[in-house]
Specification:
5 helices; 126 residues; rod-shaped
Length: 126
């Protein structure tokens, strides 16, 4: 746990630094301390960035591995735009021709327009 410094503790440290270092060398010491703290922060950020980069590299390796597996299975042999469009159109056609148990909003609209008024009257009489 990092100790927290309040105003009183900081005042005591400042007075001790003034007495020990002296008023002449105090600004120089504070500059040196500030540079040292900046270097520590920079090293910590580099450390975090290195871990983030390792994580990103692992994700890329996993994606490349999956793409290679799909290519080896023959599922991605045609990666042209035309082949992709044809696959998407086939998928769209398959989705539009869903079994009757699965109704989408578009299918409901089509079915509602196909029902005739006489069918509605016949069902109301029952």
């Amino acid at each position: 746990m990092i100790p927290q410094l309040g105003f009183a503790e900081m005042l005591i440290i400042a007075v001790l630094a003034l007495i020990v270092v002296g008023p002449k060398d105090l600004p120089k010491m504070m500059r040196t301390t500030g540079r040292f703290m900046a270097k520590i922060k920079m090293m910590g950020q580099e450390f975090k960035d290195a871990f983030n980069q390792i994580g990103e590299d692992e994700e890329l390796v996993n994606l490349r591995k999956e793409i290679d597996e799909l290519k080896s299975m023959g599922q991605m042999s045609n990666l042209s735009d035309e082949a992709f469009e044809e696959d998407m159109r086939a998928l769209d056609d398959d989705l539009r021709g869903m079994p009757s148990g699965i109704d989408t909003k578009a299918n409901d609209d089509i079915k509602a327009s196909d029902i005739k008024a006489s069918d509605i009257k016949a069902s109301d009489d029952d």
